[in-house]
Amino acid sequence: MAVPCVRVPREDGEATRARLAERDLIDDGHEIDVVEDAILIPIVDPSAVPEEYAVVDHDSPVREGQTMPADVLGFEPSYERLGEVVIIDEDDIDRAREIAEAIMAADLPVETVVNRASKVKGEQRVREWDVLAGDGTEAVHREYGCEFVLDLAAVYFSPRLATERHRVVEQVGAGEQAFDMFAGVGPFVIPMAKEGATCVGVDVNPDAIEYLRENARRNDVADRITAIEGDVRETVPAHADWADRIVMNLPHSADEFLETALEIAGEEAVVHYYDIQHEDDPFGPGERAIREAAGDEYDVTVETRHTVRSYAPHELNVVLDVRLSR
């Protein structure tokens, strides 16, 4: 059966394998294959693969002696991994339990299986989970050389946004001052700090801030990160005119915080503005909101219009990289 694989030249095989392994993307149930001058590395989540890699379907050999969930079930279940936690999204609880049992019976490095039990809700952006196997909802996730510990039931975190986060981090230079207005457990500010930036991360969720501080220590960047619990609008007096780079990853309501972002921005700043809009005009509403908020104070240059992913039928999660010049 064909499975998704990253295809790279043979000379890039080991470096690519190591990079994919760092992000827990390698499909352990299939063998890495060689076809002519290319290496094909089987993966578990094509949407999380860095954009520079080509993903193709390939009949990779099943690893001998490995039992996979599909071997137990007779069909291929849909799931994603966050460290040693497997996440499924099933409305039928009996089917969910069947899949969880198969995952635990398979030869996967898994300790816990959880099923999404609600949508993300509330000011603290958390959801409910059914723990179907194992104990608890805490996980350790590795992404582009960083390690994040988090509790899925207490904080918001999406492993599917790893590629987008890396796209932003690659723009960061040493000595920058970066401000994440809705920082969560630190998936933006921690890799930014590892690039040499001085960072501030704010979140209303006290659990997220505690995990952010712990993750800063784990990644040896605690000296370059200030973590603040509270409403970002209350942090302006201490950080007015401070930031060279601002992350606004609150796509349903980022426009409500544009005035605050402009107060935080320095003489020149790049804003990464995330939005969810209809596919007919995914970037227009955000750009108009930014230009209206900037008024005569800043010149606004849209440097990138990028679709992050499909969010719902006819709706897209998008980002605008906008340069503000006072």
Shape: globular
Structural class: alpha/beta
Radius of gyration: 21 Å
Question: How many helical stretches?
Answer: 9
Helicity level? 10-25%
Name of the CATH architecture of the largest domain: 3-Layer(aba) Sandwich
Task: Catalogue the unreliable spans.
Answer: none
Mean pLDDT over the residues: 92
What fold name goes in the CATH topology slot of the largest domain? Rossmann fold
Number of domain modules? 3
Strand order of the largest sheet: 13-12-11-14-15-17-16
CATH H-level homologous superfamily name of the largest domain: Vaccinia Virus protein VP39
CATH C-level name of the largest domain: Alpha Beta
Number of strands: 17
Q: Which sheet architecture does the biggest sheet show? A: 7 strands, mixed
- β-strand percent reads 25-35%
Helix and strand pattern? EHEEEHEEHEEEEHEHEHEHEHEHEE
| Gap from first CA to last CA | 57 Å
Structure description:
- It is a single chain.
- The chain has 326 residues and is of the alpha/beta class.
- It has three domains: 3-58, 2-Layer Sandwich (Alpha-Beta Plaits), CATH 3.30.70; 69-136, 2-Layer Sandwich (GMP Synthetase, Chain A, domain 3), CATH 3.30.300.110; 159-325, Vaccinia Virus protein VP39 (Rossmann fold, 3-Layer(aba) Sandwich), CATH 3.40.50.
- 24% of the residues lie in helices and 33% in strands.
- The strands form four sheets. A seven-stranded mixed sheet has the order 13-12-11-14-15-17-16.
- A hairpin with a 2-residue loop joins strand 16 (299-312) and strand 17 (315-325).
- The relative contact order is 0.09.
